[in-house]
Amino acid sequence: MFLLHEFFPVAILIAERVPTSNKMFDDRLLKRSKIAIFCLIIFSAIIFIILCDDLIYQDSLHLQVLQARPHRNGEGIRSTRVLTHTPLRSLQQNEGVRKENPGALVAPFNSTEEERIGWFKGKLHEFKILQSDELSRKFHARIVRFFSHECESKFFMTWEYPAGSFAERELLSIKSIFKVHPKACLVILSRTLDSILGCRILKPLLDGRFRVQAMAPDLPFLFKGTSAEAWLNELVKGKKDPGEISLFQNPSNLMRLAVLYKYGGVYLDMDFIVLKPLTVLRNCIGAQSMDSGNKNWTRLNNAVLIFDTNHPLLLRFINEFVLTFNGNKWGHNGPYLVSRVVERLGERPGFNFTILPPLAFYPADWKKIGGLFREPKTRGESKWVQAKLLQLSSESYGVHLWNKESRNLKIEDGSVVARLISDRCNICKYL
């Protein structure tokens, strides 16, 4: 490293060599010496600034690397990359992440069953979704009244997270329902959206005269008469291990089964984009994957469920949830659950349901969902986008976006998802 004090002895040495008493003293030599000294000082200062700037930059990189280490949130351990592009979020979503992180209600990592139960007992008052109050006890009366007004079809969704984290991605899914089913009625089972803030969030839809309403569900009523009733009682009494995974997700898995069993209709996850009318389908569940050789399904998924009231398969799903509940395994009480039950049923008569191929609801595997968000950069990629859009329009009822994998992806111009938004969304803002 070059520093200023290293150049002063050199400057003095040069000055000493200049004759001061000689009559032949050359003014030009003195001027050149002064210029040389000045240049050396300026040069050393420039080097010093560059090196200091490099040190600051290295410290900044080190800080960012530290910030990029994994942290715990509502979905377990996940890495946040500070240097990557942050996708567009709504104001409500930013506020929700900062103030109301749903990950706060996750049992301590690596805790024992006894410790998790103790933690849950202490936090029970914060799990509002599990409690019955004056608002939730009006659920049945509200839902009957809501569906009595010229509803051509009944749709259900769940939202168990804070209202502040509900953003444009979720609104996009709802808007796609009404684009294809303008006279549908949608109930969002959510205690947090059944609020003043929730009404403000849903206002663009209500202003468009679409029939959508958030309702705080009454779980004791929904589960009554099924095995889920006893499961809920044991959970709130501290006799069930809540598990390490966010408990918000498991009531969602159970609520969708119970609400369809009691009222019938269509259930959709909040990360599903509707492309075609779902009302032409009846008693259906979709395969997530299939064997490329024998074309048999290998896994089902519960992100889309279409069933009549009191369908026996739904009751089987509910019983399986209660008997095999495990809050420590991701997907165990959801996609894996419906797969287990249907596999055991085999060809048993009396259940009357259809398993649709992956292209119906899950045309993109969760590992490859990023391809639907990327802008085509070459002619070959543009052709692929066109081919994919053609395939979706002819063979798919909708697209599951696997929000757990894609929530941090930006919807790039010209991508498959961007084209779907612009072509099929009625009151969308471009994301």
From TrEMBL:
GO MF: glycosyltransferase activity
Keyword terms, alphabetized: Glycosyltransferase, Membrane, Transferase, Transmembrane, Transmembrane helix
Disulfide bond keyword on record: no
InterPro entries (UniProt xref): A1-4-GlycosylTfrase_dom, GlycoTrfase_DXD_sugar-bd_CS, Nucleotide-diphossugar_trans, Put_A1-4-GlycosylTfrase_plant
TM annotation in the entry: 35-57
Domain of life: Eukaryota
Domain Alpha 1,4-glycosyltransferase: 307-428
Protein name: Lactosylceramide 4-alpha-galactosyltransferase
Organism: Vigna unguiculata (Cowpea)
Lineage start: Eukaryota, Viridiplantae, Streptophyta, Embryophyta, Tracheophyta
